[in-house]
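Case study 2.
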Amino acid sequence: MSASNLGSQILKFWKPYDVLTQFTDTLGRLTLADYVRIPNVYAAGRLDRDSEGLLLLTDDNKLKTRLTEPRYAHPRTYWVQVERIPDEAALSKLRHGLELGDGPTKPTIVRRLETAPDVPPREPPIRVRQTVPDCWLQLTLTEGRNRQVRRMTAAVGHPTLRLVRCAIGNITLAGLKPGDWQALSEGEASELRRSVKLK
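Prediction:
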């Protein structure tokens, strides 16, 4: 998106697996610079190298701060493939909060997906154990601690196999495939700003 009426650029990007959420790396690993060649935009938040999915990039520092400050409780939604099939007790623990090493988690919206989300196979593929079933969950969090989703599912006995962030507030992966980016529409950008109390 060239400069809009909002005076800034906001892009959505589907970060592939094994890509760092930064533009430089001295070790020669894949970074955002291998996919996004728009000057002066930076990631609003992070995704771990082994996680995939939606990342927002902007040149608006105030928006970037609002999207990452815990007090704005901005929702982030993930598709999470886990080992085994969580029962209602495990899902309830995720929903109501559980104790991690850095304190209790906030309540989380969690549901088990009946079918796998429509995402392309991961390269390299996840490990598969023929004797251990897996399933997909959808989790919506309003906090973003380090590797929080993975720690939460492990804490209830269901290690994460694959993690894909599918939405940040009103912005989704719609229209993207891994490695793609596109500018937000003016309507999407306005709604995103309103969601973090920016005009």
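The chain is about 20% helix and 25% strand.
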